[in-house]
Amino acid sequence: MENADYSARVAAFMTGIAHRIGSPLAERERATINQLAHAMLDPSPPVAEPESRLITVLIVDLRGFSVLADSCEPAVLLAVLKPFFERMTELVHEHGGFVDKFLGDGVMALFGAPEHREDHLPLALACAARMQQAMLDLNAGNIANGIPEIHAGIGINTGEVMVGSFGPQQYREYTAIGDEVNFAARVESFSLRGQVLLSERSYRAARGCIETGAIRQLRVKGRSGPVNLYEMTAVTAPVRTIVPQVEMRASPRVPVQLPLRFYRVHDKQVIDEPYRGSIMNLGYDGMLARLPLDLPSLSEISFTVNPDLASDGASDLYARALHSRRDDDAYQTAFAFTSGGTPGHEAVRNYVDRLLWGAAG
């Protein structure tokens, strides 16, 4: 018979999926998710008294899934999520990690707990690189089956946390808690699609066995001053593993002059205060916009695709600020779209194609 903790974890996983797809689960969908949860969750989770331990926390999360969930049937979303969760879970286990929990459209994994390992950080780094490589294979299958492509961002942080079994006796759950766990979630929230971002502590401990790209200095909730986040581009030891680069400029930019009404996004919640600007140029996966405010690097916005672009009706898109510069009384800001494969994203791609073909003709 299943223990109460395991049953609760399965139920929570199923509830999270139902919440993410935005509708109740039909009988077939419920059976599919129940089977998936049982396959991935350990029926005998470890039981241990809480203790302080240095570990590495890895969080992988799908970019732009909220918009995708609003535009696809539940059956399609399950077809997207099932192989994603299965592959991410496999890779965590292959690298000696522990799946702590599922986060609706993401996975939180621990390295160095429950099993005490000195090599928790190298294992997490190798796992992250393999995860981004696995996304290429998952998307190849999605394209072949007519399913939208998906992209993931990954955040990694190393620090002292409390690990052990928490909760009342009948529902005890092994997990990690503490500021460093919360900070790992903050690091992940700043990652663009295809990226692996490292905290300062993870970077300093691993810099002899990794390659890095851009360094971002950001202000993060829970930290008194600015922090540096490092983009990992490859693991060099013990085996060289490259993080595939997701092309952010996959098409020429076309000059446009379109109104932009947007909202800022904080902790995945849209802040109900509209701003107005204008789109200056547009590509398949990003845009340059003129804004009335200076957005911090990697901050996120939500906006509705202009009806002129989306002939089938308005559709939302999400984007992250890459960099900006002062332009008289405004700011020119470059954005990367984070909600790929959605109706809004397809509308932008079709609009860019129409402008390119018209210019060519």
UniProtKB/TrEMBL annotation:
GO terms for molecular function: adenylate cyclase activity. Signal peptide: none annotated. GO terms for biological process: cAMP biosynthetic process; intracellular signal transduction. InterPro entries: A/G_cyclase (IPR001054), Adenylyl/Guanylyl_Cyclase_3/4 (IPR050697), Nucleotide_cyclase (IPR029787). Residues 56-188 form the Guanylate cyclase domain. This is Adenylate cyclase. It comes from Chromatocurvus halotolerans.
